[in-house]
Each structure stands twice: as structure tokens, then as C-alpha cells.
Design goal:
The mean pLDDT is about 95. It is elongated, with a radius of gyration of 14 Å. It has one domain. The chain is an alpha+beta fold. Helix content is about 35%, strand content about 20%. It is built from 3 helices and 4 strands; from the N terminus they run H-H-H-E-E-E-E. The longest helix is centred in the first third of the chain and has 15 residues. Strands 1-2-3-4 form a 4-stranded antiparallel β-sheet, covered by helices on one side.
Length: about 90
């Protein structure tokens, strides 16, 4: 594993493991949602144990992940960032 890749992983995991940084990251992700989805996260309910923000009705979540496929090698379609990814998922 390259040192640059490892550094990105460490930086991303720092966000996941710090409640303040994770809250900021999830709120940033919420901020780029279409209004129809953004409104569903008005309570900003964060599940720190699972690194996600739960929608007001509990049907959706903004899930923080290390990268798209963390069990696969890094590639163009599976890039490692220093912030991780946030994806919108059904619960």
C-alpha cells in the first residue's frame, strides 16, 4: 500500500472517528442534496456508531463510507479520498 494511499485512508478514518468532523461531513453532504431529500433530514439525527445521518422518517440515511468498494483495490471507479464518501441509501 503506497504511503499516499495510506495517508488518505488515515485522514478519512479521522473524520469517521471524530464526532465533530463526522457531523460536519454529513451536513456538507446533506447540503448538496436536492431539496426534496434535504427536507427529509431536517432533524440532523446522527448515528455515530454507524457513521450515518438518519432521515426524519427513518427510511433513508446518509452513510459515510471509506470508498465505494473498500474490499477492492483502489482504481478510477474506486478512488480513495481523504474525506471518505457519503452515499444516500434506503434503510
Amino acid at each position: 500500500m503506497s504511503s499516499q494511499f495510506q495517508k488518505k485512508v488515515e485522514q478519512a478514518l479521522r473524520i469517521k472517528n471524530d464526532k465533530t468532523l463526522l457531523t460536519k461531513r454529513l451536513r456538507e453532504a446533506k447540503g448538496v442534496l436536492k431539496d426534496i431529500y434535504k427536507k427529509r433530514f431536517s432533524k440532523n439525527k446522527i448515528d455515530f456508531e454507524n457513521a450515518c445521518m438518519i432521515s426524519d422518517d427513518g427510511a433513508l440515511k446518509l452513510q459515510w463510507i471509506l470508498r465505494s468498494k473498500p474490499d477492492k483495490p483502489e482504481s478510477y471507479n474506486n478512488q480513495q479520498t481523504n474525506r471518505g464518501l457519503v452515499v444516500l441509501e434506503h434503510v
